[in-house]
Write a structure and sequence with these properties.
The chain is an all-alpha fold. Helices cover 85% and strands 0% of the residues. It folds into two domains: 41 residues; 47 residues. It starts with a helix and ends with a helix.
Length: 89
Amino acid sequence: MDEGFTEALAAFWDKRADTLAPDMKAHDAALEKALKRFNNTLTNEQIDIYLDAEDEMSRREATVKEFFYKTGFRDAVRFLLHCYGNSPL
């Protein structure tokens, strides 16, 4: 991917996140700090289990985000078609 495009995309998403969820960066920083403290209390065996669980939580979160993105996009298209194309909702 073009480096300029990648930077522009990252800047767009940062601005979008700041607009829609202004506290997100603060929450992310607090979560990262808490997780570091938590990780320092785990044994090596517990760390492996924790990392497995964290991977699964990340996969689940991605699935949920994808679902709501697709649902929101579909609903937006249906709404526009209804408004401008006389299509039933």
